[in-house]
């Protein structure tokens, strides 16, 4: 033994470890490892800087994160696990990309597993994130002897994916202008609900859905007379009758309950009990999953988690045609639930579609009483489709949640409840994870349109990890979309500090932040009371906000994060709402790879969104960091606010309004004169402090 390796490490059981990807291309035997393991963890070299590697906002936050981390690089440590059980853990070495632990473990084991895992992690204030994994086959350990050598680690980032980006549930041809990309390519505007309908229709083995709300009578295709009568519930039942495994995992709203044959609607109208009742007795398996507290919660904390926090993940996983009689998995991830009130287009019509596509899909929780003549609440959202190795991370997320969820009634007694899940490796014509990784990694360098994608989950607080990092040092433009954006969270504070830093350094930096005019509900009533008097103004002035439900970020037109993760503590803390998001970029369309401004799919997506919000595309929009662009967007926003706020009824070309606030030279914020309250419904634009429990709102 090396005399320098003398420091003893912790060898006590410390929970479970989930490795979200394979460490080898080989097929390994599941063998019993019984006896003692004599383990030395010496060092790691050239670890990535986890405050920059995923490149979501490293340049944005780098220097200012020094309030929490002195140098802003990785804080690595290692866990040793077998069969998912952690058997040893090193200490954390702060701010070091070449850590030297010199730790010894002597651990008794009696585990059946294919591999022993050494998981290198980055410790942070928001939790830990996997840097890489080393796997040593159990078969090799059973040979005995000393196994002393350097091991390369496997990264979690997935290469060789294809990604389709969607804005809103539907897009009608010609609704948005054509957008040219590099290499004379055109940006293709996707049709999200159409694609979901087709994907489910063409599934042969499995359809797995998660949602905050999944409603059986929603229609995914509204513009085709031959398909517009087909509801989601009928589609899923039909696939299940064909032998497709259909599993639906929906948040169990604690305020909605079923008493004998009577169902009470919950406060949030998710219709979870209605959905469960519709599929009961069919071949579609539905689990209503309550949000329960974790191991870190006290008894009161667990009760609080179940009462006010939710499962917010929205995913659809299906098998699809891969050619040559093979099947593959594809997944949809984002902010859109398959429920009522979500179908919309970039036009966001308030009245025009009330007698057509929204005839049976009226949604406006800001209004009570008679809805006759009132506008619908328009819905803006972001979503994506992923085709490639990353889908298996999303599949793992579903499998973990399904197995952890509590079945109802007699199903609780079924020991083999996990039999509902299809074992992908046992279906011969479905491409497995190892084959998908191997094929896509080999083709990644040659495919100009390939994507590198990583999944973030806030079940383990990783959703926030995507946001405090950046695609390259010193980004020039960051664009956020968020339903709620709370200053109690570190991210908004860091943006403000970064802006101040850039001003002082005389460097260009721009942050565009898009929010709904107010959170969903009556803007002047904490108890969401509906005062019918104000509805008359809505009918007269024919105006209403577009509900920005989307959650996402675009950095420098080369990196995108998308999913259901608000920039607030509910989504970011990791112990409140459960979220899922993805971060992605095209390696052939980055500033570094092109030595110029990239015009790939992410650029096209951002320009398409700007065309929707501003009603036009102008030359300066190609340079969003420029002062010319900032001033032009501000002018358009101010003009749109004036047009929106006056009582004269006019057709608005753009939807993006400058929020009616002003900031004086001393930094004091106040409403614009004459704009102290929201039009029609009232409510102060700067809000009002309330004694309502803080966890509900941040």
From TrEMBL:
Keywords assigned: Calcium, Hydrolase, Lipid degradation, Lipid metabolism, Metal-binding, Repeat
A GO biological-process term: phospholipid catabolic process
EC number: 3.1.4.4
GO cellular component terms given for this protein: plasma membrane
Official protein name in the record: Phospholipase D
Pfam short name (any one): C2
Record Gene3D superfamilies: C2 domain, Endonuclease Chain A
GO molecular function terms noted in the UniProt entry: calcium ion binding; phospholipase D activity
The reaction(s) this protein catalyses: a 1,2-diacyl-sn-glycero-3-phosphocholine + H2O = a 1,2-diacyl-sn-glycero-3-phosphate + choline + H(+)
Organism per entry: Chenopodium quinoa
Function: Hydrolyzes glycerol-phospholipids at the terminal phosphodiesteric bond.
C2 domain ranges (all copies): 20-153
Entry cofactors: Ca(2+)
Annotated ranges, domain PLD phosphodiesterase: 307-342, 544-571
Family: Belongs to the phospholipase D family. C2-PLD subfamily.
């Amino acid at each position: 033994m090396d005399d320098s390796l003398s420091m003893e490490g912790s060898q006590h059981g410390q929970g479970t470890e989930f490795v979200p990807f394979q460490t080898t291309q080989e097929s390994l035997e599941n063998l019993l490892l019984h006896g003692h393991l004599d383990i030395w963890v010496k060092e790691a070299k050239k670890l990535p800087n986890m405050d920059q590697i995923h490149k979501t906002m490293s340049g944005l936050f780098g220097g200012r994160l020094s309030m929490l981390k002195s140098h802003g690089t990785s804080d690595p440590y290692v866990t040793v696990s077998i069969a998912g059980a952690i058997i040893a853990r090193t200490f954390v070495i702060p701010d070091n990309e070449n850590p030297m632990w010199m730790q010894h473990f002597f651990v008794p084991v009696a585990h059946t597993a294919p591999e022993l895992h050494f998981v290198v992690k980055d410790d942070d204030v928001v939790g830990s994130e996997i840097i890489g994994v080393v796997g040593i086959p159990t078969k090799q350990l059973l040979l005995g002897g000393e196994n002393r050598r350097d091991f390369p680690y496997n990264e979690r980032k997935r290469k060789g994916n294809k990604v389709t980006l969607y804005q809103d549930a539907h897009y009608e041809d010609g609704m948005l202008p054509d957008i040219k990309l590099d290499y004379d390519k055109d940006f293709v505007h996707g049709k999200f609900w159409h694609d979901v309908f087709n994907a489910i229709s063409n599934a042969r083995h499995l359809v797995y859905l998660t949602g905050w709300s999944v409603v059986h009578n929603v229609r995914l295709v509204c513009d085709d007379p031959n398909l517009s009568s087909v509801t989601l519930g009928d589609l899923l039942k039909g696939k299940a009758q064909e032998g497709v495994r259909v599993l639906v995992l929906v948040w169990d709203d604690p305020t909605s309950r079923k008493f004998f044959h009577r169902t009470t609607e919950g406060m949030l109208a998710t219709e979870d009990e209605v959905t469960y009742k519709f599929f009961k007795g069919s071949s579609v398996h539905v689990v209503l999953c309550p949000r329960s507290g974790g191991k870190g919660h006290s008894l009161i904390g667990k009760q609080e988690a179940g009462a006010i926090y939710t499962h917010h993940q929205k995913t659809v996983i299906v098998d699809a045609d891969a050619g040559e009689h093979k099947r593959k998995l594809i997944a949809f991830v984002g902010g859109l639930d398959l429920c009522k009130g979500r179908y919309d287009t970039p036009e966001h019509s308030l009245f025009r579609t009330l007698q057509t596509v929204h005839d049976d899909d009226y949604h406006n929780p800001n209004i009570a009483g008679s809805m006759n003549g009132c506008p619908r609440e328009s819905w803006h959202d972001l979503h994506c489709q992923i085709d490639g190795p990353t889908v298996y991370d999303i599949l793992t997320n579903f499998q973990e949640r399904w197995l952890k969820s509590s079945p109802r009634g007699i199903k609780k007694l079924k020991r083999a409840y996990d039999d509902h899940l299809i074992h992908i490796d046992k279906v011969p014509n479905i491409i497995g994870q190892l084959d998908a990784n191997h094929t896509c990694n080999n083709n990644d360098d040659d495919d100009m349109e390939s994507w590198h994608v990583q999944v973030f989950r806030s079940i383990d607080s990783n959703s926030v990890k995507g946001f405090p990092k950046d695609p390259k040092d010193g980004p020039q433009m960051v664009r956020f979309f968020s339903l709620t954006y709370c200053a109690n969270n570190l991210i908004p504070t860091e943006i403000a500090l970064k802006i101040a830093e850039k001003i002082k350094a005389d460097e260009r930096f721009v942050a565009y932040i898009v929010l709904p005019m107010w959170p969903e509900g009556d803007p002047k009533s904490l108890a969401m009371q509906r005062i019918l008097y104000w509805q008359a103004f809505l009918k007269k002035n024919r105006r209403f906000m577009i509900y920005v439900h989307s959650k996402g970020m675009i950095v420098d037109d080369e990196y995108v994060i998308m999913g259901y993760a608000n920039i607030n503590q509910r989504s970011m803390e990791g112990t409140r709402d459960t979220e899922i998001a993805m971060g992605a970029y095209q390696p052939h369309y980055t500033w570094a790879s092109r030595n110029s401004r990239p015009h790939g799919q992410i650029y096209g997506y951002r320009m398409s969104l700007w065309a929707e919000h501003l009603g036009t595309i102008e030359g300066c929009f190609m340079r969003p960091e420029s002062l010319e662009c900032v001033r032009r967007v501000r002018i358009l926003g101010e003009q749109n606010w004036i047009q929106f706020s006056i009582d004269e009824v006019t057709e608005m070309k753009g939807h993006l309004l400058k929020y009616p606030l002003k900031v004086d030279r001393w930094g004091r914020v106040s409403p614009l004169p004459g704009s102290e309250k929201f039009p029609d419904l009232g409510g102060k634009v700067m809000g009002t402090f309330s004694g309502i429990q803080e966890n509900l709102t941040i």
